[in-house]
User: What shape does this take?
Amino acid sequence: MGDDMGYSLEQYCEDCRAALAADGGAAGREAVRANLERLLQDGDFLAAHLGPDQAVGTRTLYQDPDHEFCVLAYVTDEARTSMPHDHGASWAIYGQATGQTDITEYRRNDGGAGAGAAQLEQTEAYRLEPGKAGLYDVGDIHAIDYPGGARFVRVTGTDLNLVPRLRFDPARGVAETIENASVPDPDGN
Ligand SMILES: [Fe+2]
Assistant: This one.
């Protein structure tokens, strides 16, 4: 089942370029999120990148040479529960294709900003169902939890492998900086 008008990956990336060129802040990112929900309705896009024929793994579908944003497809086989984390100086958008992702959002209450002692308070918990996309702006702390077989798109403001980011361990009350590209992406599989 597809959008009557159809909506391709190429058109999506063009729309994101235009949105981010017009507004590099919150409004541009919200357009990238809303357009992703439209892309997730397109049967041809889903079949080509997130359908049953696609192998398990993470694939970069597009990286923009000017605005740096990346569009990645995740085809998982194992369930995963991430630690709370941010994406450093990058924003991120998750859009569900198959299965679901449970998202928990947090606020940091200790007044700190970097690594070290950290106290988190849960602020939101909800489920992304297929067709839904959520935006996590720069510094927003979140955790994700998905079952094996979940498939989703993630759009990031830049290549996250190059961005120092924070991972939180609520049990130990600490935040740790992750800088090494060899450390698995907290949302990866
Ligand atoms: Fe994340």
Observations:
- Helices lie at 9-22, 26-39, 43-49.
